[in-house]
Design a protein that fits this description.
By secondary structure, this protein is α/β, with parallel strands linked by helices. It has one domain: TIM Barrel (Alpha-Beta Barrel). Helix content is about 45%, strand content about 10%. Strand 7, helix 7 and strand 8 form a beta-alpha-beta unit. Belongs to the transaldolase family. Type 2 subfamily.
């Protein structure tokens, strides 16, 4: 359940040792924290939202998954509202678990969409009992394990889409999306990805669903074809400028090939991954070991992201784009993904605060979301110092950092990670089914 309650600010433990903004002692801080503590054999008491309040001077509002009953409560205005209203960036939540009603406090706090992936569902399904009843029914009716998995996922996506539907309607399809990814086993299968995307879109059957397709070389043509079929897409696992440009071209090609007179309902986001870039490049810089190399650690990801925004502005302008706009086309927004800080020495808003700009999305897992609501600053930063970003990018090349290699390596790691999560979850579900003596492979 979602339990809303207040705790003294002094009791908050921050996730990193990075610097933070100074705030007046009497100013409230807001945190949002969704956690699932149940296991398969633990039974939830209710799906309702609960409210517990302990008033004290200087408090923080925290939303947690709990097992207590009660009524929902409207959260106060947060920096997420300012992020969207003042700077045109949509804050999304990078997580999904049951009960989906736990998203309600997040929506009230300013969250405008949800992203999911195989790793998120692996954690949600394997650590919660909330899926037990549906899973049991599915296997009893003869569903194989993978088919049962997709039924569980589709229900979560449909329920989440319902919660965000009003945002979708209010923005005329500009926001309020929930993303679900095709099987990671299809990352090198062009045609398989196209068919899976069509089937998943039909299965979910919600106007505000994004079908996630990885930006692997074999799947770039899939993106064009799926867009051409009028299906909105979240392109994921983008790690390089070259691949990002190819993704934009696939979107534009798909719009042009669609034959639709009204393109306003076919939209897309391009998920450009951030923190993982620094994780890899920092290791390479430490191996180089020179003062120049060590001094530039923690700067690669933001520099490349800033340059990606320049590519975005260039590609979505000019005669070609203007012709599509006349048919109602909407820009494929840049979505900053992998925004949680992996190195505790870095500020905990490092991959959010420097990437604020109009017509973008920042999808944040718990850690990053908590940090930004608590002490994030709202200002346009994505193009505030493009020359510095260009300098960092070039300096890294001079030090021997091969950006093409970085992109390829991170893409391979991303695909492998999602495949492991996917396979691990199927194994867990098989074990669960076996324990119930319901089904076998």
């Amino acid at each position: 359940m979602a339990s809303i309650f207040k705790i003294p600010s002094s009791s908050i433990v921050h996730s990193s040792t990075g610097s933070r903004s100074n705030r007046s002692s009497d100013q409230h801080r807001f945190l949002v924290d969704l956690r699932t503590k149940t296991a398969f054999d633990v039974k939830r008491s209710s799906s309702k939202l609960s409210l517990r309040t302990a008033y004290s001077p200087g408090v923080s509002l925290v939303v947690r998954c709990s097992q207590s009953d009660g009524n929902g409560s409207t959260l106060k205005r947060t920096t997420l509202h300012d992020l969207y209203e003042k700077q045109g960036q949509s804050p999304w939540y990078d997580n999904l678990c049951r009960p989906v009603t736990d998203l309600i406090p997040l929506i009230e706090s300013g969250v405008r969409g949800v992203t999911s992936n195989p790793a998120i569902f692996q954690k949600a399904i394997s650590t919660s009992n909330a899926y037990n009843d549906q899973f049991r029914e599915l296997v009893q009716t003869g569903k194989d394990i993978e088919s049962a998995y997709w039924e569980l996922v589709v229900k979560d996506i449909q329920d989440a889409c319902k919660l965000f539907e009003s945002i979708y309607d209010q923005t005329d399809g500009g926001d309020g999306y929930v993303s679900v990814e095709v099987s990671p086993r299809l990352a090198d299968d062009t045609e398989g990805t196209i068919e899976a995307a069509k089937l998943l879109h039909k299965k979910v059957d919600r106007k505000n669903v994004y079908i996630k397709i990885p930006a692997t070389a074999p799947c770039v043509p899939s993106i064009k074809e799926v867009i051409a079929n009028g299906i909105s897409v979240n392109v994921t696992l983008i790690f390089s400028l070259a691949r990002y440009e190819a993704v934009i071209d696939a979107y534009l090609d798909g719009l042009e090939a669609s034959g639709l007179s009204d393109l306003s309902r076919v939209t897309s986001v391009a998920s450009f991954f951030v923190s993982r870039v620094d994780t890899l490049v920092d290791k390479m810089l430490e191996k180089i070991g020179t003062p120049e190399a060590l001094d530039i650690r923690g700067k690669a990801a933001i520099a490349q992201a800033a340059l990606a925004y320049q590519v975005y502005q260039k590609k979505f302008s000019g005669p070609r784009w203007d012709a599509l706009v006349k048919k109602g086309a909407k820009k494929q927004r840049l979505l900053w993904a992998s925004t949680s800080v992996k190195n505790p020495a870095y500020p905990d808003t490092l991959y959010v605060a420097p990437l604020i700009g109009p017509d973008t999305v920042s999808t944040m897992p718990d850690q990053a979301l908590q940090a930004f609501i608590d002490h994030g600053s709202v200002a346009r930063t994505i193009d505030s110092n493009v020359s510095e970003a260009e300098g960092v990018y070039s300096a890294l090349e001079k030090l021997g950092i091969d950006w093409k290699f970085v992109g390829q390596q991170l893409e391979a790691e991303g695909v492998e990670s999602f495949m492991k999560s996917f396979d691990s979850l199927l194994d867990s579900l098989q074990e669960k089914a076996n324990s119930l003596k319901l089904v076998s492979l």
